[in-house]
Specification:
By secondary structure, the chain is α/β, with parallel strands linked by helices. The chain has a domain of 77 residues: formyl-coa transferase, domain 3, CATH 3.30.1540. Helices cover 36% and strands 16% of the residues.
Length: 770
């Protein structure tokens, strides 16, 4: 078996999508994963057939009756032979089954365990069913997601589950890294709630000075979708330095909106007259040419322009195929399917060729023979430390998707040095977004092109465990920090490159900015609703790319622990965007499965999974599973049409059922319905209809759980941001540190490099550092 995780043993007791998605990623990269399901197969195999065709690939299946003592003993025996165990039961269920933390530690103190719940193990929502829709309703996504009517907008992309799967994987990999040092097995806990926050983090920041997220269309930043003359859509983003002015030149508007004079142009306000031009005249200009002409014009001007494609059209695009991001898997239930391939490329330890999801019980009987007991080192004890304490990361990236990965590493205890140009990261113009991507790091600002700083550059490379960046192809080499240059100085370095499109291929030199890569893979149509123009997704490839990049980094570190060897790792943003739509597949005859589920009004996916207006607000219902639908049927009783007596709600036409439920729910207030349905065991909540940024970040409960943090600031008085989204036993997670000011640690880092204070002062006088 190949892959950076070859030899790792994983027992997967999870259900739903987040847990199986997480362990699918582990299996794709070499782990031996067994999915534990009840005799006869888990009911989710039918209800989530499309998801499971992807998320169960490369795994084995073992059927076990967990309601019997013999079954629990069988699983505990497997866990004792394993490295990792994952579960996604509601809080308390594992303990009732006899598979709680105490039972696992008694049998397998070396194991890293992971729990993925809906809303976490404590807090006011711990017992709310962990349904994707309910998470988005309560966390505030439905108030964030743009729509064609006022909020709430049902979320069309499952990024809470995706985020939880990435967080769970990162936590487990970090715990394994520390276990390889001290021999201690740890428990990792996260949730779909945390998974949603991992994406919303980019948008959420709060200060006492009132500084908040920028208002689209108010600054010198164009980031929107345009309809072209051929009725196709194009996403444009001018976040690159100078791109706003270059777009104005292409559109012949420079006399009315002159070019800017700062690297942080996206934070500079427009005049009211200029804002009107951007809002009204520019869309009209794009209607004058077909999309392919605009792509050519803007590409030649080095302005980010990306076509917004419909479902699975990206599977046929040359760059996607060049990256190897589409694989065919012969699923035993759905037949031959084109699926999204694993998103990360390891030069020295390539991922596993995908095998189809197992049939019920397939491959499980050989586990006892295959998983022979292994000698485990005795725990060394000592004080609790952060899992990545001692790991040094050199972050050469800019904007969001690249730097977000090292930020997540800093959250886990790594020492991250952010090397910036003298002008600073262009994203500094948008404080909320910048702070989200850069929390916990140290900043050095230097002119790395200067020959006088060659020794500093060499020191930073030679002392890094990881180098991470997202520069455009060729830029790192010109600065002397390309992979070959770095490996010559530091052969053991884990070099993680996160380009937009890839390091090679027909589109590798194109610009990429979120959320346009989501548009390229069809995500903008997924959140817009059927038949609607594309809409920017709240959960996009910027945070998604950072999460995948963090996992790439951790896998590279684990592989180096086992082999002593560094390697080149590539994690393109387009690959991460595709991984975000991995729940969508295509049959050999071209039929697409799992796409375009959201209705045109952006109410939901079906009558049993959607938003409903009530007498005084809104209700979010998530009763699509047979058990929940039966509970709803029992709760409503004779209030449903008489002709449906005895019928299962899942068998009734969705439009007819939606009309009937809509009439019922409109007759009473939201609080009454939530109380009645919750008491009857029906998953239903009142969705948030206003942005939750300040409410969430100032909530003492969220600060207690460390999901939110508050720090003092010289200008903004108090600054608040999202903090830890993982909990881990026997680990001291670092305190929240606000993103550094430009060059805040330059002197400190240069002293560590062996420079004298006099040399540092001289460099400052020469304007080589700041």
């Amino acid at each position: 078996m190949t892959g950076p995780l070859a030899g790792l043993r994983v027992v997967d007791c999870s259900r739903g999508t987040a847990g199986p998605r997480m362990t699918r990623m582990l299996a794709d990269y070499g782990a031996d994963v067994v999915w534990v399901e009840p005799p006869g197969g888990h009911p989710s195999r039918e209800q989530l057939a499309i998801d499971y065709a992807v998320n169960l690939r490369n795994k084995r299946s073992l059927t076990v009756d967990l309601h019997s003592e013999a079954g629990v003993e069988q699983v505990l025996d497997l866990i004792s032979r394993a490295d990792v165990v994952v579960e996604s039961w509601r809080p308390g269920v594992a303990e009732r089954l006899g598979l709680g933390e105490a039972a696992i530690r008694a049998r397998a103190p070396h194991v890293v365990s992971c729990s993925i719940s809906g809303f976490g193990v404590d807090g006011p929502w711990r017992d709310v069913p962990g349904q994707e829709a309910l998470v988005h309703a309560l966390v505030g996504t439905m108030a964030e997601q743009p729509g064609y009517r006022p909020a709430p907008i049902f979320e069309g992309m499952p990024f809470a589950s995706a985020g939880a799967s990435y967080l769970g994987a990162a936590g487990v990999l970090a715990a394994l890294y520390r276990r390889n040092i001290d021999g201690i097995g740890r428990h990792v806990e996260t949730s779909l709630y945390d998974g949603a926050l991992a994406y919303l983090m980019m948008l959420w920041g709060d200060t006492d000075s009132g500084q908040g997220m920028h208002v689209p269309g108010a600054n010198r930043l164009v980031t929107r979708t345009f309809l072209c003359a051929d009725e196709e859509y194009l996403g444009v983003h001018t976040g690159a330095v100078g791109a706003f002015g270059r777009l104005m030149k292409v559109l012949d508007l420079t006399d009315r909106i002159p070019a800017g004079e700062t690297a942080h142009e996206m934070g500079v306000p427009l005049t009211p007259e200029q804002a009107l031009i951007v809002a009204e005249e520019i869309p009209a200009l794009f209607l004058q040419r077909p999309r392919h002409e605009w792509l050519a014009l803007l590409g030649a001007a080095d302005v980010c322009a990306v076509e917004h494609l419909r479902r699975c059209q990206s599977f046929d695009q040359p760059q996607v195929l060049h990256n190897g991001m589409v694989v065919q898997v012969d699923d035993p239930v759905l037949g031959a399917l084109q699926q999204v391939a694993p998103p990360i490329r390891f030069a020295a330890s390539p991922h596993v060729a995908p095998r189809p999801a197992p049939r019920v019980g397939e491959g499980g009987t050989a586990l006892v023979a295959d998983w022979t007991p292994m000698a485990r080192p005795a725990p060394t004890g000592g004080a609790d430390v952060a899992p990545l304490a001692g790991v040094r990361i050199l972050d050469l990236g800019a904007y969001y998707a690249g730097p977000y990965a090292p930020r997540l590493m800093a959250d886990l205890g790594a020492d991250v040095v952010k090397l910036e140009p003298l002008a600073g990261d262009p994203l500094r113009g948008l404080a909320v977004v910048f702070r989200s991507a850069q929390a916990g790091k140290r900043s050095i600002a230097a002119d790395m092109k200067a020959d006088a700083l060659a020794g500093v550059r060499q020191h930073l490379i030679a002392n890094a465990d990881v180098i991470h960046h997202n520069m455009r192809p060729g830029a790192a080499e010109r600065l002397g920090v390309g992979y070959e240059q770095a490996a010559a100085l530091n052969p053991a370095v884990v070099y993680v490159y996160s380009p937009g499109w890839g390091s090679s291929g027909p589109d590798h030199l194109r610009q990429s900015f979120a959320p346009n890569m989501s548009g390229f893979v069809g995500g903008c149509f997924e959140v817009a609703g059927r038949f609607n123009p594309p809409m920017y997704p709240t959960g996009n490839e910027d945070p998604g790319g950072g999460l995948v990049g963090a996992i790439a980094t951790l896998m590279g570190l684990l592989h180096r622990q086992q082999t002593g060897k560094g390697q080149y790792v590539e994690s393109p943003q387009i690959n991460a965007a595709l991984d975000g739509i991995s729940h969508i597949v295509r049959r050999a005859d071209g039929e697409v499965l799992g796409a375009e589920r959201l209705d045109p009004l952006q109410y939901g996916f079906s009558a049993l999974e959607r938003l409903y207006p009530t007498a005084d607000g809104w209700l979010c219902l998530s009763a699509q599973m047979p058990r929940d639908a039966a509970a709803l049927r029992a709760a409503l009783g004779n209030r449903l049409p008489a002709e449906w007596t005895g019928a299962e709600l899942t068998d009734i036409d969705s439009d007819d059922l939606g009309d009937a439920l809509g009439a019922l729910f409109e007759a009473r207030g939201t609080a009454d319905w939530v109380a009645e349905l919750t008491a009857a065991g029906v998953p239903a909540v009142a969705p948030k209809t206003e942005r939750q940024t300040a409410t969430f970040l100032r909530d003492p409960e969220n600060q207690r759980t460390r999901r939110a943090a508050e720090v003092d600031h010289s200008r903004d008085v108090k600054v608040r941001g999202i903090d830890q989204l993982l909990r881990m036993t026997s680990a001291q997670m670092p305190a929240y540190r606000l993103a550094p000011e430009l060059g805040a640690h330059t002197t400190e880092i240069l002293l560590e490099a062996g420079l004298s204070p006099e040399s540092i002062d001289a460099f400052r006088e020469q304007r080589l550092v700041r």
